[in-house]
Protein 1
Amino acid sequence: MLSQTAQYGLRAVVFIAQQPSGQPVTAAPLARALGIPQNYLGKTLQQLAHAGILRSTRGKAGGFQLGRDPYAISLLDVVAPFEGMDERPVCLLGGNECSSSTPCPMHSRWSPVAREIDRFFRSTSLGEVAEGPPPSSWTRAFRSNASSSGGARGAGGAARPAPAMLAIASGTFDVQVTPADPTAPPTAVPGRMHLVKQFHGDLVGTSEGQMLAAMTETKGSAGYVAIEKVTGSLHGRAGAFVLQHTGTMSRGAQQLTVTVVPDSGTGALAGIAGSLRIEIEGKVHRYTFEYALPQ
């Protein structure tokens, strides 16, 4: 019975409410996680921020957060910026007037249902809804990013249970890349490198790994693969997991995928799935890690 915009707004606010430690979420990863067009979602989030349901902050560490305590926000508060429940047409058949004195053929049956819907939206808080697990459909992006070759399926091809917690981590990292064989020429194919990283932000820890690279005689064209093991704390959950990199550059046009190796998580990060995006601005390396974990 809700408009599409109200449904998108409700999904987005519930997702944001379920983020660990109230971390901000930007529109792009949120749109991917929920399967909503980014431009459409961006306008919806701004409307929610204008209404005080969300708080918007700018900058690299910015994004959207809840504007107040989730238990002080009713579902009616969330959908009200897009449609007024009190102004909802009572007549399902489209009559201009529909009341007990001038009822349509459906009025006697629909009127109590409409009152119950109104009561539900007024009496149910966002905090109550956010306590439960997210819909399994929200995990599709995470599962597809976790493996492109059936890694999200168990023995015999049976689908594994969907992870119950979706989250987005961001921050910066420092990286040192050194030749595994200092005597090898720079043009050697494959070139083997040793990676050491220090992560800051929502992910705090270190990683070590190996990279194989192939440079070509054409400027801006190359390829690399890498494996690194990350050990640390992700939103306060300690453990380790393995990332797999596959990158190519064709005359300057770059493509890079970094995904969690299925079943590589240990400790409190056991069962983790997801993908990591890297942005480089000058000497600053930034990451955005979209991940899913069992509750």
Protein 2
Amino acid sequence: MNLLKVFEKQIRFVKIDKIVIPEEYPKQVVELDKLVALANKYKNAPLPVLCSPDNSLFVGELYLRILRFAELVKVPCISVDDLSLEQIVILLKEYGETDLLSIYELIKFMKFLHEEHGLSHQELGEMFGISRVAVTNRLRLLTLPYDVLYGLVNGQISEGHARALLALKKEDLILYAYNKIVEKNLSVREAEQMVREVLGRQKQSRKRSIDFKAEVDSTLNRIILTFGSAEDMQAFIKKSPLAKKLVLKNKK
């Protein structure tokens, strides 16, 4: 299918150096010989580059890099906001047959179709050939830190590993667990077990003893408790029914 002909009314030719790749975009790592082969294959830019209205790249980071490597000055560009749902489906099919889209970009497309075109998770599942639950799980992956998405895009971890990391919620814990998975080449089951252990340690740390010291103020006939931190004081207030009857101070 000649996409440039099909979408000639929406296509605008943009200088390739004007198309901006967002900083949070996890790039695919490609060996030089493969990049050369792809540049020879796509040097005539048979596919339009998918952008936002401000010329920031929407999806197709590898394709854009290929066109830059082929030294194209201008490339055909389409704003996704100008496309109907039917036209987006056509583009998805054509891009899908090239293997140019990463898993991150496919999920980004899912999110766009859900938020901008109102497709349900069930409808997205039917479109992408996966279950409704799989769509829901995939969309949640976009909340993961850049390093994890980069690893997912480049095969350092699988979707199963990424889903396991979601349970940790906090970015520092997620990155800690991700690095352990890569370093030790853990299976998905081993990663899930490690996540459970990390969560268990977190739960135990929340049960730690409260840091405080007690002083008796005999002149005013009262007890003053001084806490090591605001967290210690709040923990004491929550746990002790006597908290309201005592003078509480946070150590400065």
